[in-house]
What we know:
Blueprint: E1 4-6, E2 40-42, H1 43-49, E3 53-60, E4 63-69, E5 78-83, E6 86-90, H2 98-106, E7 112-114, H3 124-131, E8 135-138, E9 152-155, E10 159-163, E11 166-170, E12 179-183, H4 186-189, E13 192-194, E14 200-201, E15 208-209, E16 211-213, E17 218-219, H5 222-233, E18 239-241, E19 247-248, H6 252-268
Parallel strand pairs: 6-7, 7-8, 8-9, 13-18
Antiparallel strand pairs: 1-2, 3-4, 4-5, 5-6, 10-11, 11-12, 12-13, 14-15, 16-17, 18-19
Amino acid sequence: xxxxxxxxxxxxxxxxxxxxxxxxxxxxxxxxxxxxxxxxxxxxxxxxxxxxxxxxxxxxxxxxxxxxxxxxxxxxxxxxxxxxxxxxxxxxxxxxxxxxxxxxxxxxxxxxxxxxxxxxxxxxxxxxxxxxxxxxxxxxxxxxxxxxxxxxxxxxxxxxxxxxxxxxxxxxxxxxxxxxxxxxxxxxxxxxxxxxxxxxxxxxxxxxxxxxxxxxxxxxxxxxxxxxxxxxxxxxxxxxxxxxxxxxxxxxxxxxxxxxxxxxxxxxxxxxxx
Length: 274
């Protein structure tokens, strides 16, 4: 039996004798199945091939990025947050090997794992087992867990404080349980918001966007973006990191709020004449 990994989204499935017919996550509107068809691998095969490695880089005090090279699946970045003897892995990537485990152990290991949404569930159970850590997923997205585990904690409500100053907020949007992480002590206590792609930094690094489906260009309705904007106003942050290593270094909160206004104006048709 093997735990198959979808090559398109990188999500690992529970043990099975045969490859699944299709990836449940990729077969709906927020992802896609490759025009070449559904393809699978396993973590064991990836390690054996020797093609992949993870790079761990310090971004700023208490924050490390973790990326797989060459890119695999969606190609997101995971982040390790260090705060007062508490290490949190924010979002996850598919590839993990002994070198990665050793490097992270040198940084103090992982005390907990938190996920923004199902596209980044990847091989989260492998990471949890390697570091004996719980996984926090909002209960609204539990149907998308393809590899069940007793390590998964399905939290409920609108917010969950994992440790003093490290707070998960369900803001929805991209997924019903879409979650962002407010790290109040980050950026010298100015606050950092980790968003996955629940909120996505755009090309000029001073605006953001919100989407129901990024690959299929399906926008969110105005009421949802307005609700997200209202929630964001309550949070403390001056810097923002998204899932693809894009960073708004200053005045991130103001930039998110003005981006939400621009987005709603575009939906109204008042942003432009065409």
